[in-house]
Every structure is written in C-alpha cells, then in structure tokens.
Amino acid sequence: MSSSFALRDLQRDLENKANDLGKHQKEIAKNHQLRKKYTIQLGENELVLKELDLLEEDANVYKLIGPVLVKQDLAEANANVRKRIEYISAELKRLDRFIQGLEGEQNSKREAMMKIQQRLQSIQAGKAKA
C-alpha cells in the first residue's frame, strides 16, 4: 500500500516540476526575444554612429521627435548615440548573465525530473515483479 502512496506522490511531484520547467522555459524564451530586440537596436545605433562619423562638422543633423524633425548639434547627436550604444551594450551583458542563470536553473530542474522519473520506473518495476 505504501508504494502506491509513494508512487502517487512521485507522480504529483513530477507533474509540479514539469509545470515549473514549462514556466521557466517561457521565461527564457521571453528573455531571448528581449535580447534579440536589443541586438537589433544595437546594430541600428552602430549604423547611425557610422553615418554620423562620415559627416562634416558643419553638417545639419535632425532628430525625429514625434512627427517633427528638430535640428540637433552634430556633437550632441554623436554623444547621444554613443550613450545609447553604451546603455544597450550594458543591457545585453546583463541579459546574457540573467539568461545564463536561467538556463543553469533549467538544467537543474531537468536533472531533478530525471531522478524522479528513474525512481518512478524503479517502483513500477518492483510492482511488476511482485
């Protein structure tokens, strides 16, 4: 009788861990999407910086603010883009560390699930022999 309780408890534990793993995988996917967005923004800003570097010092630079183009100083535009690149790069590094941690936790959760599955199989094999 006790083996059926243990079996039921293990099955419930396995189900809970599977649900937890599913949530974890969604969190990882969400953060990968965010990382992709930042990577695209970084590429766009690096391209803008290259374009700004090609301009003469007296060139007119305009920034789109809502529906209006506003004239901006070249040095100010350059500084703004560099700050944006710095910020995005820092966010990418932070996200990479976060994702790496999540993936480590995911591997631990998978290992725990495998151990529970092995225990379940050994209990079921013992019942089959009996």
TrEMBL record:
Gene Ontology cellular component terms for the protein in this record: cytoplasm; nucleus; prefoldin complex
What GO molecular function annotation could you give as one example from this UniProt entry?
A: protein-folding chaperone binding
Keyword tags: Chaperone
Tell whether Electron transport is among the UniProt keywords: no
Q: Name one GO biological process term.
A: response to cold
Task: Keyword check for Transit peptide, yes or no.
Answer: no
UniProt lists the family membership as follows:
Belongs to the prefoldin subunit beta family.
**Protein name listed in UniProt:** Prefoldin subunit 6
Q: Which organism is it from?
A: Eutrema salsugineum (Saltwater cress)
